[in-house]
Design a protein that fits this description.
Blueprint lengths: L2 H4 L23 H8 L3 H10 L2 H8 L4 H28 L8 H6 L1 H11 L8 H33 L3 H30 L16 H22 L17 H12 L2 H31 L4 H9 L2 H43 L11 H15 L1 H22 L4 H14 L3 H12 L13 H26 L6 H20 L1
Helix pairs in contact: 2-9, 2-10, 3-9, 3-10, 5-8, 5-17, 5-18, 7-8, 7-10, 8-16, 8-17, 9-13, 9-14, 9-16, 12-16, 12-17, 12-18, 12-19, 14-15, 14-16, 14-19, 16-17, 16-20
Length: 498
């Protein structure tokens, strides 16, 4: 008996047992949205631990920022190949457990192991050895991340075809991610890396990194397993594939069609640019807090708390704005506004207008910009994911095939571009401004500190402006998506009755 005949559902255009599922029909129950959203906690853990990446390898272990950035970039180059390939494989894979879930569950152990060893290099390595260790562990972590997240995100596009319920699903997903990231960041800073008499800045304490490695591995493993098992009940109602022969020709055909999809190019360009900007900021802003503003580890933990309101309001704000401005208008507005607010303290400091850290206004103004910027910025993630789900329908209408995995691969690639391209640019930036490799022993020059402010301020804002320009090309709206889905329903009905 062929494998396709053993499946608990029938393939479109083929023989099988059971009813043909109605993919994504209706609105999702809240329990499904919540179970699915637990899968975002692995990314929250990667983000919380990731704040230490450059500090650990550069300031603690002595690897140059250029080499650190190069390691991040190499991992991202691998992502450029692996992400769409895994997306295509999960689009065409056939098994009793569906298309996505086998990839997801098999990623759990290597994902956890790779993030553990990234923070536990063997002793006695030279700078070159540490660079190679970081590169290999980063590549393995990114590959494992790909095998979980590309199918996970493609699964999200299949769960519902309701225009606004898609925004609701991704709203919950990002709420889990943001709350998890904030909570885990506080735990990392206050519990794992507290300030001590020996280390005013706890992330410089090498002896605490084994705790970070173990915690990160555990959270990643549990998130992957719980989300995968918790969503397996949805397998029978998901869309199915007509082909079990994923190949290079089919892969190239999908990519070729997408390269001529105006809306897809718009989202890809915008999202890749924005996430690269966030990656640049993530590298330099920690140095800026520490060496320019003199922020302590405990104050950094407070910064994590001020991000929580953004997680609470992200869905209602995204839902309100997309109904008012459509998805394109929302992305452009929030990109420009959030970047301007986040960059404002650094721009003001460059001009000599920001109060120093002895002023009563210092922390309220500094943390206030983080509070408002992080309350707005998550809307970008929710809306971009919702846009990609709409593009999946548009692509099916034009090609007759579903390709959620390939389409959403840009999403995972962009998220990892925060470490890859963004980390590379940030690392090179630290070299260009002459920032010392051991700033705790060698005080940074005024020029180096001003360089940090320039990267975290004007340069960061300009990157988001480019992202907004890309988004201006997006052409889908609610009316057009409704028309697309009506045409798809007619085609599916005609195919079933044939």
């Amino acid at each position: 008996m062929a494998l396709r005949d053993k499946l608990p559902f029938k393939f479109r255009g083929g023989e099988g047992r059971g009813e043909t599922p109605d993919p994504g029909s209706g609105k999702l129950p809240l329990t499904t949205k919540l179970t699915y959203s637990t899968g975002s906690l692995q990314w929250a853990m990667v983000q919380a631990a990731g704040m230490a990446n450059m500090v650990f390898y550069n300031q603690v272990l002595g690897v140059s920022p250029a080499l650190c950035g190069t390691a991040f970039l190499i991992a991202n180059i691998v992502d450029a190949i692996s992400d769409p390939m895994v997306g295509m494989l999960s689009d065409r894979f056939q098994s009793r457990w569906g298309r996505r879930h086998p990839f997801m569950i098999l990623s759990a152990v290597p994902f956890a192991a790779s993030i553990y060893f990234m923070y536990q290099p063997v002793g006695g390595l030279s700078e070159t050895g540490l660079f190679l260790w970081l590169t290999v562990s980063m590549v393995l972590m990114h590959l494992s991340y790909t095998f979980f997240n590309v199918p996970l995100l493609a699964l999200g596009a299949e769960l519902t075809d309701d225009y606004h319920d898609r925004t609701a699903l991704w709203g919950w997903f990002w709420t889990f991610s943001l709350v998890g990231s904030a909570g885990l960041s506080v735990f990392v800073l206050r519990v794992i890396f507290p300030s001590t008499p020996e280390y005013d800045f706890g992330l410089l304490n090498e002896g605490r990194y084994p705790l970070l490695a173990g915690m990160a591995a555990l959270i990643v493993f549990l998130s992957v397993v719980f989300s995968t098992i918790g969503t397996r009940s949805q397998i029978p109602r998901l869309s199915v594939t007509e082909s079990n022969r994923p190949g290079l020709k089919e892969y190239v055909e999908h990519l070729g069609r997408l390269l001529f999809n105006r809306s897809y190019i718009s989202v890809c360009g915008s999202w890749l640019t924005i996430m690269t900007g966030k990656g640049v900021l993530s590298v330099v802003v920690l140095y800026t807090w520490l060496y320019y503003y003199g922020v302590t580890t405990e104050q950094l933990a407070i910064l994590s708390f001020v991000k929580i309101p953004g997680a609470i309001i992200v869905y209602p704000l995204a839902a309100f704005l997309t109904r008012l401005l459509e998805k394109r208008g929302t992305m452009i507005l929030i990109a420009l506004l959030s970047a301007a607010i986040s960059a404002s303290p650094h721009v003001a400091s460059l001009g000599g207008f920001f109060p120093d850290n002895t002023s009563l206004l210092f922390l309220p103004l500094l943390f206030g910009s983080v509070f408002v910027g992080n309350a707005l910025e998550p809307v970008l993630s929710v809306v971009a994911d919702s846009q990609l789900a709409d593009i999946c329908d548009d692509h099916e209408l034009k090609t007759g095939a579903r390709a959620e995995g390939v389409i959403y691969s840009v999403r995972t690639f962009a998220m990892k571009a925060t470490d890859g391209v963004g980390g590379f640019i940030g690392g090179i930036g630290l070299v260009l401004i002459g920032f010392p490799e051991d700033a705790s022993a060698t005080e940074p020059s005024k020029e180096a500190l001003n360089g940090l402010l320039f990267i975290a301020g004007p340069f960061f804002f300009l990157i988001f402006v480019v992202g907004a320009v890309f988004m201006s090309m997006y052409s889908l709206n609610e009316k057009r998506v409704t028309e697309i889905q009506a045409q798809l329903a007619e085609k599916r009905a005609a195919k079933e009755s044939a």
